[in-house]
Design a protein that fits this description.
Blueprint (H helix, E strand, L loop, with lengths): L6 E7 L5 E7 L15 E5 L2 E4 L13 E4 L5 E4 L31 E7 L7 E2 L7 E8 L4 E7 H12 L7 E12 L2 E5 L5 E4 L4 H11 L18 E2 L1 H5 L10 E10 L6 E4 L8 E3 L2 E4 L4 E2 L4 E12 L2 E8 H8 L3 H8 L7 H4 L5 E8 L14 E8 L33 E12 L1
Protein name: Replication factor A C-terminal domain-containing protein
Amino acid sequence: MTQEFRGLNVIFIDDSNSRIHAFLSAKICDLFPKPPKEGVIYSLSNFHVRVYSDDEKNRAVRFSKHIYFANHTQLILEEDNITNIAPYAFDLYELNDVKKFVSDSRFLIDVVGIIEDCNMKCVRSREDESKMHIKFRITDGRSTVNVTFFNTLAEDLEKELKNMKEEPVTIIIASAKVNEHEGALCLNNYPATRFYLNNDHYSVKIMKERLLDPTFSIKEKVAEEGNAPPIFTVADIKKLPKEYTESKVRCQITVKKVEQKTNWYDYVCTSCGEEVDIVEGRYKCLKCVRNIPYPDRRFRLATICNDTTGILAIVFPDDEIQRILGKNAFDVADEVGDDKTFPLVLKSFEKKRAAGYIEDSPKKIEPTQVNDKSLTMEIDETIDILSSPPTAKSSNKVRTRDKNQFVPYEMEDNVPISKYKVVKIEKV
């Protein structure tokens, strides 16, 4: 094994909580006198995007493409977090699913669990005292997995556990390597591995609640700039032919009623963003064909809206509600305190006016007898609906999009893209 420095591996996260891996080669590191730092926000432009080859293993992000820094890449430090990019983003798997990764070496894995015994110490090698390891077990109430950290990460865990006053201790392990040792499953650290103890991530709260439960322990068509479509009335929209299906039209409406008999949020997959189903008591993504132990919550506000020409059923999607409220669905759920009470902050949308784009939605709003159309609305202009701060601080927000089209293959010169926060850096 060579100690030659080959470059920096970086994981970026944007304001929609999507992650992507980036690589800064040692050959051009001198062009970046101030390399990226973890926890700092940058705007990134003029980079290359490449598709992973089949032989690239141990990827920290489940995505087919990754960013390559070029000699003309611009990495600009942003002083303020005006977009409120979340500090963390995880793609968590159930401990019971860990065994699937033994034979799939393409990806590393994120898990969360309770440390069974915090009274552990590092064991140093007799041959080389600079080498050490620490062993422990984590559980989610139904499954248990062995974990072994080596060297620096082992020492860091030992130090942090000594300072922990709150018990039980919940640990999120990001980018762990799945191995088998003496026939038993084991998680080990990799250069990309990080751990977080009693973090404020929503999965930690869910984990602690589950352990207290005895029953548990058993394409988008966007108008070109300068060519904005005219404003349609509700009557006009009802008369639109089938050719307008999945197309966007602009309207100006008043929210007449917020439906409180329908769920105000959906549970969605943390990988693909699709709504999950409950199969045998567990959340499962039928698209990814796996259980989602800690699904994300996404707003879905069903409303009855009108103008002077008629009434229409419209769904306000997650992105728009987060932008308006400055909060995500988990934040609102915490404020309400239970899942049975409808949030007053969403009820306050009634009698408010907004202008924006609407399009046909595959879901129908039920119950409603307004008409046979169910539409989603992307707010273009808030008239008096609510103040509109930047995107909310998200714990693990997922936006509906085709991830294969998330990163273009080539960027035009000197065109900045969305701001990113560095969440992980690894020297190779």
